[in-house]
Amino acid sequence: MGKGRYIFLRLTVFSLVIISMVATSAIMTVSNVDAATKLEKKRINKVVQTAKKKKGKSIRSFPSYFNSGRWCADFVYWTSKKAKLNNNKVFPKTKRGVSGYISWYKKKGLYRKNTKKFKPRKGDLVFLSSSSHVGIVAKVTRKYVYIIHGNWSNRVKYTKLKMHGYTSSQRAKIKGYARVNY
Question: Which among 132, 159, 150 is positioned nearest to 62, based on CA atoms?
Fold first, then answer.
């Protein structure tokens, strides 16, 4: 075997080893992403299930965190706390309730206006155009968003909202969403 051919074979073997290492690294990265996604889904489900358990409850069921009179924000914060999430990184405790949530998520680049380009997902926060109102997205279909939210007729409600526009039973239009990093 000539010296040139020997060097060529060594380079080929070396190249295959490098390619194998890169491929293994890529597979491990994908596995880590899948693990994080599973953890995120678990946390989202825990928040939504915790919120759903309070359907029909009134204001007296929740402590006031924001003192804003709009206990929908108190309900969202309470839900995250009961689901044992790190509230300062996931659901912040701001001094301004709903408007504080919007500002915080905008600063993090996680707030999205309700446009046909943005597809909400379970676990997102939803902000409504009527006054200042926030809820948690519990389910999404092609045309509708189902939310669980406090302070709607002084109760925790599970409500079906048209994703874009109004339905006859809606009192509010969806203004935007916050993509929560669970």
Answer: 150
What is the distance between the alpha carbons of residues 75 and 48, in angstroms, rounded to a whole number? Answer: 12
CA distances from residue 68 to 28, 64, 75, 151 in whole angstroms, order as listed: 47, 8, 12, 12
Concatenate the DSSP letters of all residues of 13-82 into one string: HHHHHHHHHHHHHHHHHHHHHHHHHHHHHHHHHHHHHHHHTTTT--GGGS--SS-SS-HHHHHHHHHHHH
Q: What is the pLDDT of residues 105-151, one digit of tens each?
A: 999 999 999 888 889 999 999 999 865 889 999 999 999 999 999 88
Type of residue found at 49: Q
Q: And the tokens for 100?
A: 């504080």
Q: What are phi and psi of 166, to 5 degrees?
A: -120, 155
